[in-house]
Amino acid sequence: MARILVADDAPSVRLLVRRHLQADGHEVLEADNGMEAYDLGNEANIDLAILDQLMPGMVGTDILHRWRKEGRIFPVLLLSAVDDDMTVIQSLELGAADYIRKPFSMPELKARIAPHLPQP
Amino acid sequence: MVDARFITALAFAAAVTAGLVVLLVAIKLAHRQVERYRGVRSAHYVAAVGEMVSRGMLPTDPPPAWSDDPYFHDAVADYKLLLTGADRRFVDQLVDRLGIADNLMARAKRRFPAASRLRALSSLVNLAGTRHSEDLRSLLADRNSHVRVNAVRALARLGDVASVPRVLELATRIKPWEAARMADALVQMGAVAVEPLRQWVEQEANRPHASVEVVALAARLLGLIGDTGAEPTLVTLLTSNQPDWRVAAASALEHTGSEAAVEPLRRALRDHEWRVRARAATALSGMADPRVAGDVARLLTDEVWWVRQNAATALGSIPGGRALLVAALDGPDRYAADAALNQLTISGAFGEATVRVANGAGTDADRLLLAKVAGDQ
After folding, report:
1. Closest CA–CA distance from residue A104 to any residue of chain B (Å)
2. pLDDT of B165-179, one tens digit each?
3. A11 touches chain B (CB under 8 A)
4. Distance CA B87, CA B51 (A)
5. Looking at beta carbons, which residues of chain B come within 8 Å of A20?
6. Nearest residue in chain A measured CA to CA from B89
7. pLDDT value for B30
8. Do residue A19 and residue B50 have CB atoms under 8 angstroms apart?
9. Contact A15/B88, CB-based, under 8 Å?
10. What is the dihedral of CA A75, A81, A83, A86, to 10 degrees?
């Protein structure tokens, strides 16, 4: 079981991802803005984060950049409707484990998360 | 002595003001309550639909209000746009099971009230199915321009290619803003729209009283979609008698043009219409064909500033073009030298030359460029 942060300003995304991850036995923390996501990543001892790129407060790549600068190395997946190659490249260069474009399918999202979860 | 009538009038005005303030506060409070109620209802629907989608379970006995409630429709559309694959198909099944799209279509086809029709249509853009195509097409003849625009957006999302010629016909009779919105929708349709667009352009361009603006618009759409299937039509349009069509074709070939478009675009560099020459130079810049560098460089001495500027910018991208820009610095034409110098400066060539000269590896061209920039300052 892993502790996963899901940060997205859209409640539909948070709800759907939470339901699926909880069904697989993971603990899910939620944030609806960038600042809250950043704080949870610092304080909540998480194993993996799924961040929306465009969130109020702070964008996903900025959060990732700050976490990496502060030495937090848990895997981060960006999940975003921003379909711009430069953003994808920037995220991967900053150390994102993956970049998933919206719209997405839940089986695909779970398959992309799986390799980055701590092994039991 | 104060006039008693004045005091009465003052008291009356004060009473009216106080009454209005109370009324405004009451309206504001009521509005806040309504907004709060809507927010709660929306959140409930997002949660309910999310549960259904994540469990993959359709409701056996759904509340009848769901199929009529715009907030429920928004929640369903939210999930539909978020998901792909089996999850999206599930949302479609939910829309069908609840009869949402049918209800919305019925509402959209009513004459009144207009706000309700528009709300229904904006939901239909995301929730309509292919069986609603004919009804949506019938709305293209509606008197309300917003209804027509939303009908086109819904048809485009469905990929309804049969509606493309009808939309273009309509565009010849409506206001430019409406045609532009419809054009955006057709671009969203993507590659499937190319064939009907192409056929319409070819047919319309040969009519004696063709709409100049709409044929040009359709050509630009072909460019924005960016499919090479449009290229023969655009190349033909590039030689038409109508300058606006040639301009639109040259612009579109910038996005769709393959090697086959190079020669027609090279000929277009000599077009008597300056906008065509400027556009053709820009289009050729993306093709990176060194054979056209000399032809584009000739436009550095064009009589029109825009053409010279576009030619200089294009030479920055065409292999061998940068050397021609440097050569133009020392040429007899002052305008060509200005355009070349401007392009070499903004493209980073000046910075690179500075570094090479500083490292003792500068060429004559580098030194010429530095001298020209220094002279310009």
Report:
1. 5
2. 999 999 999 998 999
3. yes
4. 12
5. 54
6. A105
7. 95
8. yes
9. no
10. -50
- In this prediction, the residues of chain B whose per-residue pLDDT falls under 70 are 1, 376-377
Helix axes B274-285, B305-317, angle to 10 degrees: 10
Rounded to the nearest 10°, the torsion over CA B21, B27, B28, B32 is 160
Residue A119: band (very low, low, confident or very high) from pLDDT cuts 50, 70, 90: confident
How far is the alpha carbon of B84 from chain A, nearest alpha carbon, in Å? Answer: 5
User: Chain B: nearest CA to A69, how far in angstroms?
Assistant: 31
Which residue in A has a C-alpha nearest to residue B87's C-alpha? A105
Please enumerate in sequence order all residues whose Cβ is within 8 A of that of A23, keeping only pairs 6 or more positions apart, or say none. Answer: B54
Q: What is the pLDDT of residue B331?
A: 81
Q: Which of A6, A8, A12, A22 should we substitute to test contact with B (largest number of B Cβ atoms within 10 Å)?
A: A12
Give the pLDDT confidence of A61-100 residue by residue, as tens digits.
999 999 999 999 999 999 998 888 888 999 999 999 999 9
- Beta carbons within 10 angstroms of residue B260's beta carbon: 12
Position B300 scores a pLDDT of: 92
Min Cα distance B83 → chain A (Å) is 5
Q: What is the pLDDT of residue B377?
A: 52
What beta strand segments (E) does chain B contain?
none
Q: What pLDDT shows up at residue B222? A: 96
Please classify residue B146 by burial: count the beta carbons closer than 10 Å to its beta carbon, then call 0-12 exposed, 13-18 middle and 19+ buried. middle
Residues in chain A: 120
Task: Give me the total of CB pairs closer than 8 Å, taking one residue from chain A and one from chain B.
Answer: 52
| pLDDT score for B1 | 60
Whole-model pTM over 0.90: no
Would you call A16 an interface residue with chain B, using a CB distance cutoff of 8 Å? yes
Distance CA B111, CA B142 (A): 9
Which candidate, B281, B280, B262, places its Cα nearest to that of B339? B281
pLDDT at residue number B374: 77
**Could B86 and A107 be called an inter-chain contact, meaning their C-beta atoms sit closer than 8 Å?**
yes
Substitution target in B80, B82, B88, B89 with the highest count of A β-carbons within 10 Å is: B82
